[in-house]
Design goal:
- The chain is an alpha+beta fold and 164 residues long.
- It has one domain.
- The protein contains 5 helices and 5 strands, in the order H-E-E-H-H-H-E-E-E-H.
- Strands 1, 2, 3, 4 and 5 form a 5-stranded antiparallel β-sheet that branches.
- The protein is globular and about 45 Å long.
Length: 164
């Protein structure tokens, strides 16, 4: 009986530690600190990009790479170079992220809809310690055509054929 009580007390003490690490990951994600660059030519309808994510935890930074890649394609776009063409953001209109904040909170939630439009092509290619944080680089493929279609259907962006 004493062992069960002891085990129960240990579990109660550990719960805030696990909850705290989840909150740190969520906080890192909400900041959307990343860099995005072209990584070559993807298959038709996709972008092949290298995304650099930052976090105090290597695992969190690695997990956020896919989310950050989709966020970058939607809101930032990326530069070209080495045979790549620069790409504008899908949501080029200013204020879209704030205007549709509820939609994007769900979209970028844990295993949210963003997950349908991205896949990894490899394990993290580079992990660099920068001060007290890690900078993790990973090459991912973003299904830009499907992503554009979903954002158009949600009313977040206008279709290409809608005119100016």
């Amino acid at each position: 009986m004493r062992k069960i009580v002891y085990l129960f007390m240990v579990m109660l003490l550990c719960m805030p530690v696990f909850a705290g690490s989840k909150k740190k990951a969520d906080k890192d994600t909400e900041l959307f600190r990343y860099e995005l660059e072209c990584a070559g030519n993807g298959t038709q309808g996709t972008y092949l990009v290298k995304v650099w994510s930052y976090s105090k935890n290597k695992k969190v930074a690695t997990e956020q790479c896919m989310k950050n890649a989709v966020h970058g394609v939607i809101f930032k776009g990326f530069t070209g170079g080495d045979g790549c063409v620069a790409q504008r953001a899908l949501a080029a209109r200013a204020g879209v992220e704030q205007e549709y904040a509820d939609y994007f909170k769900t979209f970028f939630g844990d295993k949210g809809e963003y997950y349908k439009y991205v896949s990894t092509t490899s394990a993290p290619t580079e992990i660099v310690k920068v001060g007290k944080q890690y900078k993790v680089g990973m090459i991912v493929s973003v299904k830009k055509d499907e992503l554009r279609k979903a954002l158009e259907q949600a009313g977040v962006i206008r279709s290409l054929g809608s005119g100016f």
